[in-house]
Design goal:
Blueprint: E1 2-11, E2 14-24, E3 29-33, H1 40-48, E4 55-60, E5 63-64, H2 68-71, E6 74-77, H3 89-99, H4 106-115, H5 131-144, E7 149-153, H6 161-176, E8 180-184, H7 188-194, E9 197-202, E10 205-210, H8 212-218, H9 227-235
Parallel strand pairs: 3-8, 3-9, 6-7, 7-8
Antiparallel strand pairs: 1-2, 1-4, 4-5, 9-10
């Protein structure tokens, strides 16, 4: 569902993303980890078209990532949620439904608002929402169109414990439906539970890309080591 080949992103002479290659299959949840400045968000923004890549090829569902056909296949949840100040919560969902030609969208919208405790906020304007509420609206909008690929950049930040638990449950449900999920997060414990595969970035490069068990074996760590321990070991400065 996603192919990234030779992706490079330069800021001046600095390589924020340095010749990375990876692919994601249908029904796969992949955790993207790395310290601040590793290139995670830059990679994701290049994939979804918010940043112009310097070099490389990216395809989604076999289509160029900037094509209309590809854009119909994915949703992106940014680290900093952005909502329209003068649209209500419900109007945000209506806007997405119209933009993606989602038929019979209201029952799904009601279900999503119930899941994220937004039913009593449905008439509240975007400008009046807290950061956590904005994040919930962003997630609901991303899920409404039933995309094949979802890109989550720090989706748990700002969410309350109930919303975090529901988001993990939704990840599992999406996986069971064959959806593809790439999630970038600093909450290592949460991704350890839900991810089929882990990609670890450092200095713009992918330094690990495999299941947690295989990563432990490759770097000769014991079975008792946690993903957090492995991550800190791999990304420590020499």
């Amino acid at each position: 569902m996603l192919e990234v080949n030779g992706l490079v992103k330069l800021y001046g002479k600095q390589k924020a993303v340095d010749e990375i290659n990876f692919s994601l299959e249908g029904g796969e949840v992949v955790g993207l980890l790395g310290p601040n400045g590793a290139g995670k968000s830059t990679t994701m923004k290049c994939i979804v078209g918010l940043l112009r890549k310097t070099k490389g090829e990216i395809s989604i569902g076999g289509q160029d990532h900037l094509s209309t056909a590809a854009k119909k296949l994915f949703s992106y949840i940014p680290e900093t949620p952005s909502v329209y100040d003068l649209l209500t919560v419900e109007e945000h969902l209506q806007f997405i439904a119209q933009a993606y030609s989602v038929k019979e969208w209201k029952p799904r919208a009601e279900e999503l608002m119930l899941t994220y405790d937004l039913l009593d906020k449905r008439k509240k304007l975007g400008r009046d929402l807290s950061k956590g509420m904005r994040q919930k609206v962003s997630i609901c909008c991303a899920l409404l169109s039933d995309p094949q690929v979802l890109f989550f950049d720090e989706p748990m930040i700002g969410l309350d414990p109930k919303a975090i638990r529901n988001t993990k449950r939704i990840f599992r449900e999406l996986k069971d439906k064959g959806k593809t999920i790439l999630v970038s997060t600093h909450l290592i414990e949460s991704v350890e539970i839900i991810a089929d595969r882990i990609m670890i970035m450092k200095d713009g490069k992918i330094i690990g890309n495999d299941s947690l068990g295989n990563l432990k074996a490759a770097f000769k760590t014991g079975d008792q080591i946690t993903l957090e321990d492995l991550f800190l070991e791999l990304t420590k400065d020499e």
